[in-house]
């Protein structure tokens, strides 16, 4: 039996692993299909404190993993099919590993950005297609950018990107936006943003240097047209990775895990959540790492109390 199992290896899970390993709790860390998490899909990270020259996303994650290993964290790759939280120790069914048991669990499985699922999109991730304006906007100084989406994220990203871009075209599949009025107004009042509403994205076009345009269907006329662009930011929402939990942990209406304010405690004692799987708001590597540290400390305290009773 493990004292603690950490599920997920983004900045939150790896920070929790560093802290728990240093506390001699020998955490088992289960790596899923995207080791290192969302940062491994970006290029340079310039806003993670401590790296004045910036650092490549995959390198940052590799460093965090090595740091956790140095103190004794054990890593295993596998897909967690299900978790039984009805009593402690908790039981995990993991592909290729059978059943594992743990006194405590840290859920740090993150959230996955939704993609449009159109031809040319995935092939051009890192070559002009991005799902993170805070991460990649800086690389589009003086360039033209398309933002896809009609929610608050799209409005926020479009506004943010006008700091760098010469022009931002907001493409949305309907005439009406889903975004809140205040966010819409802010975007509508921004002279650098133009609107291509009622357009369904069909295909991302690219050349040797990356993205060159996006083919869209005008839903009013049925005509297909290409909007030229240097970059494409897909802002159609995120999905927190919680399916394997089978509804045993409380979530908000958008599926994010709910933690007790100011802590990482979930509704099940001994189960802690950190990183994007419980954060619909900040979604930054550094804030995820911060909650990973909190989860480790909450977990340590829980184990201490459990042992003294
Ligand atoms: P969202 O509200 O779910 O909006 C997603 C948008 O993407 C919708 O307009 C949707 O179109 C469009 N979309 C979804 N799938 C698509 C597809 N396959 N092709 C084309 N378009 C597609 O997601 P969000 O904007 O990420 O916001 C999530 C939550 O976070 C919301 O509660 C939001 O208020 C909150 N948030 C708040 C702030 C803020 O206040 N500062 C900032 C960001 C997010 P339809 O409208 O046609 O469905």
Key features?
FAD/NAD(P)-binding domain, binds NADP nicotinamide-adenine-dinucleotide phosphate, 7-stranded mixed beta sheet, 5-stranded parallel beta sheet, single chain, 309 residues, 29% strand, 2 domains, alpha/beta
What does this structure look like?
The protein folds into two domains: 2-112 and 238-308, FAD/NAD(P)-binding domain, CATH 3.50.50; 115-234, 3-Layer(bba) Sandwich (FAD/NAD(P)-binding domain), CATH 3.50.50.60. Strands 1, 2, 5, 6, 7, 8 and 19 form a seven-stranded mixed beta sheet that branches. A five-stranded parallel beta sheet has the order 10-17-11-12-13, covered by helices on one side. With 309 residues, the protein is an alpha/beta fold. It contains six helices and 19 strands. It binds NADP nicotinamide-adenine-dinucleotide phosphate (NAP). Residues 116, 148-154, 156, 173-174, 178, 236-237, 254, 280 line the site of NADP nicotinamide-adenine-dinucleotide phosphate. NADP nicotinamide-adenine-dinucleotide phosphate binds at residues 116, 148-154, 156, 173-174, 178, 236-237, 254, 280. Its EC number is 1.8.1.9. Residues 3-292 form the FAD/NAD(P)-binding domain. Homodimer. GO terms for molecular function: thioredoxin-disulfide reductase (NADPH) activity. This is Thioredoxin reductase.
């Amino acid at each position: 039996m493990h004292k603690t199992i950490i599920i997920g290896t983004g900045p939150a899970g790896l920070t929790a692993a560093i802290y728990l390993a240093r506390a001699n709790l020998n955490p088992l860390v289960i790596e899923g299909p995207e080791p290192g998490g969302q940062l491994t899909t970006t290029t340079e990270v310039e806003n993670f404190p401590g790296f004045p020259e910036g650092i490549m996303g995959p390198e940052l994650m590799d460093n965090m993993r090595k740091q956790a290993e140095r103190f004794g964290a054990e890593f295993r790759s596998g897909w967690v099919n299900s978790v039984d939280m009805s009593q402690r120790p908790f039981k995990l069914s993991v592909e290729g590993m059978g059943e594992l048991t743990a006194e405590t669990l840290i859920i740090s499985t993150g959230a996955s950005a939704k993609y449009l699922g159109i031809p040319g999109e995935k092939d051009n991730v890192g070559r002009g297609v991005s799902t993170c304006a805070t991460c990649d906007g800086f690389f589009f100084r003086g360039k033209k950018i398309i933002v896809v989406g009609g929610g608050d994220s799209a409005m926020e990203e479009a506004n943010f990107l006008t700091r760098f871009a010469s022009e931002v075209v907001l493409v949305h599949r309907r005439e009406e936006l889903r975004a809140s009025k205040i966010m819409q107004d802010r975007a509508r009042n921004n002279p650098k943003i133009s609107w291509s509403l009622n357009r369904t994205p069909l295909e991302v076009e690219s050349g040797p240097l990356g993205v060159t345009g996006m083919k869209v269907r005008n839903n009013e006329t049925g005509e297909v047209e290409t909007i030229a662009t240097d970059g494409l930011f897909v802002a159609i929402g995120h999905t927190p990775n919680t399916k394997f939990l089978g509804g045993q942990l409380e979530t908000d209406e958008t599926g994010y895990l709910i933690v007790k304010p100011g802590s990482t405690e979930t509704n099940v004692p001994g189960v802690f959540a950190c990183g994007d799987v419980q954060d619909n708001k900040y979604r930054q590597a550094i804030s995820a790492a911060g909650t990973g540290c909190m989860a480790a400390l909450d977990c340590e305290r829980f184990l201490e109390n459990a042992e003294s009773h």
